[in-house]
Specification:
Neuraminidase, single chain, 6 helices, mainly beta, 5-stranded antiparallel sheet, globular, 2 domains
């Protein structure tokens, strides 16, 4: 925006700092990353409207706030990726604003995760992954590397952007592969939109765990969203080996991490999360005593790793649930940047912020699903159908 140099208005003191368009833009960039911020700013005066509508301003606004995005809502994996907004007025995104349309999306397709304002979708029949930007509507199709045998292995993946980049992205695909349940290896490969190419295939063996169970389930990469903590992505492993798969983005290496205890016991569920203070953590929900446990993985000075219980949340004291209403608790999704868990309860689907412990009851349903939280910077009036969105936001203020 360097072409707009210090435009001053008649009757304004020459030294007034807000007469400098570049300085005013820097101030406007620091408005809260809420959908109503820029539409409200555009109503102040024609000059402010011109600045926030200038080509490239929203890109800068999105880049400035990409590390503290709003939790706009979530996409329902098992309901055609329908979007449900979670913010209240005046920031509530209109229903249908982020509708997904793809002719090749069918019952064989599967959403793999959402991060940095992008959704990753596996189009099985096409042997492609699709990267979709719900805000702009852009879609990018990428052929899956031949090393991933999608007929016999379950693949998962993650999409992400590098710090300071709102144009390029990376896709990481992972899978557990092997003909013998005792000799399974994890595979990973990274695609860069900057080069348009897949990198080298990375692999590591997955330890075999003997079991007395008559049910022999091969080790698989769980279909939950990956969690990005530090420079690594983490997925749950299920089946024979109950653990966590780590992919280090910097080292381009895979590792298998063992769990602190049996997380798949009766009456409990868990999800991988960012630990408080950084690093890898776990959120474990227990039906037996209606608590949520936050675990953290610690690395000592010698490189040794251990798990420790960091905090326990007494859900029966936090939530308005009567003793006779206590029952099943199911984790439906986790928003890593806002530290919010979506939890199914008898009284409804709740979203709980794990630091402040503030919660909101979204709606009541008897249908279990899986949610991809959509954490992004969105401003009505700066994108496709923006005029309608801005009007709806301002009417509901």
């Amino acid at each position: 925006m360097s072409s707009r140099r210090r435009r001053r208005h008649a009757g304004s003191p020459a030294s007034a700092p807000l007469d400098d368009d570049d300085l005013l833009c820097e101030i406007l960039l620091r408005l809260p990353p809420e959908p109503s911020s820029l539409p409200r700013a555009s109503l102040v005066c024609k000059r402010w409207r011109r600045l926030v509508s200038y080509p490239g301003f929203f890109r800068r606004f999105r880049l400035h706030h990409r590390r503290n995005p709003s939790l706009l809502g979530f996409f329902d994996r098992f309901n055609g990726l329908s979007f449900l907004p979670t913010l209240g007025a005046p920031n509530r995104v209109p229903h249908g604003r982020f509708s997904f349309h793809c002719d090749d999306f069918d019952s064989c397709s599967m959403s793999l995760g959402c991060r940095h304002g992008l959704m990753l979708i596996f189009l099985r029949k096409r042997l492609q992954v699709l990267v979709w930007d719900p805000v702009t509507g852009d879609q990018h199709r990428i052929a899956i590397p031949a090393a991933f045998d999608t007929e016999k292995t379950l693949i998962n993946g993650a999409v992400l952007r590098a710090a300071g980049d709102v144009e390029n992205f990376q896709v990481v695909l992972v899978a557990a592969d092997g003909d013998d349940e005792q000799h399974i290896q994890a595979l990973a490969c990274v695609y860069s939109s900057k080069t348009g190419l897949w990198g080298n295939l990375v692999s590591t063996p997955i330890p075999y765990q003997a079991s007395d169970s008559p049910y022999r389930i091969p080790t698989m990469v769980n279909t939950d969203d990956a969690v990005l903590a530090g420079d690594s992505l983490y997925w749950k492993l299920t089946g024979n080996m109950v653990g966590i798969l780590e992919f280090d983005l910097e080292k381009q290496s895979l590792a298998v991490i063992r769990m602190p205890l049996d997380m798949y016991g009766q009456g409990k569920c868990f999800t991988v999360m960012r630990a408080e203070g950084g690093g890898l953590g776990l959120l474990v929900v227990l039906n037996s005593d209606y608590t949520a446990q936050l675990w953290k993985r610690k690395i000592d000075c010698d490189g040794g790793a251990s798990w420790g219980l960091a905090r326990t949340i007494e859900l029966d004291k936090l939530l308005p649930i009567k003793p006779e209403e206590k029952g099943l608790l199911v984790i439906l999704g986790f928003a890593e940047q806002n530290n919010v868990v979506f939890l199914w309860t008898v009284i409804g689907v709740l979203m709980i912020q794990l630091e402040s412990l503030e919660f909101k009851n979204l709606y009541k349903t008897m249908i279990f699903s899986y949610y991809h939280p959509f954490e992004s910077v969105y401003s009505a009036g700066t994108s496709v159908s923006g005029g309608r969105d801005r009007a709806e936001l301002l009417v509901n203020k």
